[in-house]
Amino acid sequence: MSYRMVDLIQKKREGGAFSKPEINWIIENYVSGAVPDYQMSALAMAIYFKGMTTEETAALTMAMVHSGKEFDLSSIAGVKVDKHSTGGVGDKVTLILAPLVASFGVPVAKMSGRGLGHTGGTLDKLESIPGFNIEKTEAGFIEQVKETGIAVIGQSDELVKADKLLYALRDVTATVDIIPLIASSVMSKKIAAGSDAILLDVTVGDGAFMKSVEDARVLARTMVDLGRSVGRETVAVITNMSQPLGFAIGNRNEITEAVQTLKGQAPQAFQEFIAELAQIMLQLAGVEKTIPEILEHLHNGAAYAKFVAMVKAQGGDPSAFENLTAPLKVKNTLEIRADKAGFISCEKALGIGIVAMKLGAGRATKADKIDFEAGVTLAKKVGDAVAVGDLIATLYSNQAITEELVREFTDNLVISDEQVHQKEILEIVR
Question: How many angstroms separate the CA atoms of 380 and 394, rounded?
Answer without folding.
Answer: 11
